[in-house]
Amino acid sequence: MATVTLTIDNQKVEVEQGTTILEAAKNAGIEIPTLCYMKDINAIGACRICVVEVEGARALQAACVAPVGEGMVVKTNSELVRKSRKMTLELILSDHPQECLTCLRNTNCELQALSEAFGLREVRFTRGAAKSATADDIDDSAPSIVRDPRKCVLCRRCVAVCEKVQGVKAIGPINRGFETVIAPAFDQNLIDVNCAMCGQCSLVCPTGAITEKDDTEKVWAALNDANKEVVVQTAPATRVAIAEEFGQDPGTISTGKMVAALRRLGFNKIFDTDFSADLTIMEEGTELIQRVTQGGTLPMITSCSPGWIKYIEHYYPDLLPHLSTCKSPQQMLGALIKDYYPKNAGIAPENIYSVSIMPCTAKKFEAQRDEMNDSGYQDVDVVLTTRELARMCRNAGIDWDTLPEENYDDPLGMSTGAAVIFGATGGVMEAAVRTAYELITKEEMPDINLTPVRGMEGIKEATLKVGDLDVKVAVAHTLGNARKLLDLIREGKADHHFIEVMCCPGGCIGGGGQPIPTNLDVRLARIAGTYQADEELPIRKSHENPAITDIYEKYLGQPLGELSHKLLHTHYVPRGVYRKPEGLPDGGSEH
Amino acid sequence: MGAECNCNCQADSSKKIDELLSQYRGNPNGLIVVLAAIQQDNGYLPKDLMIRVAEELNVPLTDVYGVATFYTAFTLRPRGRNSINLCLGTACYVKGAPEVHDAIEKELKIKAGDTTEDRRFTFDVVRCLGACGIAPVMTVNGEVHPRMTAEKVSEVLSKYE
């Protein structure tokens, strides 16, 4: 690869040809400020914050798109550059509500940070046009995500992530000039369109224009209600991320501290979604064996990820029979929290308020689906994202650093390493293989670390010898990658037995409800934390979890049994992309 | 599509659009060509047809709608049989176009940019028709009406059914 030598701020820098000035400067330890830029996903030179002076060039250049040239002399911090950036920022702020103190992104906003870094003390301009968005344009129709176009800086990061990573493009720019808003087609509400509710847009939004729907007040109200038994569950991926909200490194394992925090917030019982992840493996593993041996629909595809579920319902309703009928771990535990747990504890189920802590905005949508009330009540009343739980902790004055490590409550708090890795791409597959191998062969698996399915590669495949059978599996994360496998299935070219799909990049650890920022480095650190947590646990296979054995013996009977079927399995709804498909039965009706 | 259209274009229009859609099936590059044809045949872009364009060209509906709302050549609402363009460019403005503008709105009981209930007129405002010597200028269906005044509005419009 040819290299180019240039000078940036008086430093000689040698980089590969084709590198942008922005990345070249980064290599040399010079941070050029950006607003719209996202490496590999959104480099469009739109916001003009990253402008630099290039000797001999007619005008300032946007460093995120301008390629380096041999002998180029770049100034990233000249008077002209500073003045231009400041003016650009001032113009952006002229059309931005000055509501920082009451904004959900207060103190974690890139616009705010730039304003501070540039030393902006005054915005000399007022709104450019009366036609800009107003508070009436806020879209809070969806249970997962709120759009506030007033706060939008039109950076198009959300559009890029929705289109290029997820292959959906539920939102895009409409109208032009000052009237431009990022919205669904026909300015429809988010709940009425093909949005998967994954919330990746809320992770990349530099401001408060797209956020999770904050449900913390509902939970405070329940905690303040003396008649309510408030029960909470925590998803695998939350434990390797929440500490970031309190200044710790990404991937820090803080399972025990999170439990302690929940107890201090006043939750009556603290259960672990990891328990129902183990349960999922028992149900889904059994379902897979049944499909393979009895000629059911193959490949079978995992159903843990509610953004993925909504996506396949919209885009591939004809393939719904491929989905496992298993509910997600959240909904399995939700059903048990309002059915098994109250029976066991002698509590009236109507007094239970069921909260879950999830890395995910789509879980908020999943919890309010019509199907999710098999206990006779809405199985999960409220879903909080990792960000919202952190907000509650700050609200309550909890000092994360001095929190002790505490344990989950019985009987739905015990779990295994197989359950922890549900949080990372490939983890459900690995957990399933650890159990299926031993259930089928009755032998111990030689090496339970299934490394071919780990890591950030978009689609991972492996063939495993299980007894006499060569089991072919595939793992995809992001909806864009899932689509590639689905197209193979449609064409009859997928010879896999089992496919894992997680909606978000890196799996749930990179979910739309996780701490901001969530970027590639952060994702990798959380994945490393996930596998470390797995290794540190004494039991690493779901079928060896004594609490799982116990609940089957005492209550559920057997995997895919009658009670399991009622509480732990579900069906799916064909939705179509822009209109309801005709003549398609609901999926997941095999049992 | 075109349900309210009073002319007899509908059958032909459907056939032509069908052909275009099949010509560009799976090809997002055909977006503007197809939208322009729909605009021409229907006088606007009906929602149902925009959805069909998205489905058949394999373009996200947000892109179809984004393009439709970006270019002024596309309209989302049915247009009237007669199209009024009043110039509010500098020359026309100082020669009294605002009074003409108000008179048209009063006469048709609509705001600029809208279409009358009976779809007889659509009234739009434009910036400079390049005929400043005969300001204020109004065109109806491309016919130029020079030196417009508020008093002449009613008489000029009465010629168009």
Give a brief description.
The complex is a heterodimer of chains A (591) and B (161). Chain A is of the alpha/beta class and 591 residues long.
Describe this protein's structure.
The complex is a heterodimer of chains A (591) and B (161). Chain A has 591 residues and is of the alpha/beta class. Chain A has 2 domains: 91 residues, Ubiquitin-like (UB roll), CATH 3.10.20; 353 residues, Rossmann fold (3-Layer(aba) Sandwich), CATH 3.40.50. Helix content of chain A is 33%, strand content 13%. Chain A is built from 19 helices and 17 strands. In chain A, the strands form 5 sheets. A 5-stranded mixed sheet of chain A has the order 2-1-5-3-4, sandwiched between helices. In chain A, strands 11-10-13-14 form a 4-stranded parallel sheet, with helices on both faces. A 4-stranded mixed sheet of chain A has the order 12-17-16-15. In chain A, helix 8 crosses helix 10 and helix 8 crosses helix 15. Chain A is globular. Chain A starts with a strand and ends in a 23-residue tail after the last helix. The mean pLDDT of chain A is 96. Chain B has 161 residues and is of the alpha+beta class. Chain B folds into 2 domains: 61 residues, no CATH class; 76 residues, Glutaredoxin (3-Layer(aba) Sandwich), CATH 3.40.30. Helix content of chain B is 43%, strand content 11%. Chain B has 7 helices and 4 strands, in the order ααααβααβββα. In chain B, strands 2-1-3-4 form a 4-stranded mixed sheet, with helices on one face. In chain B, strand 3 and strand 4 form a beta hairpin. In chain B, helix 1 runs antiparallel to helix 2. The two termini of chain B are 23 Å apart. The N terminus of chain B is likely disordered. The interface between A and B is medium-sized, with 16 and 14 residues.
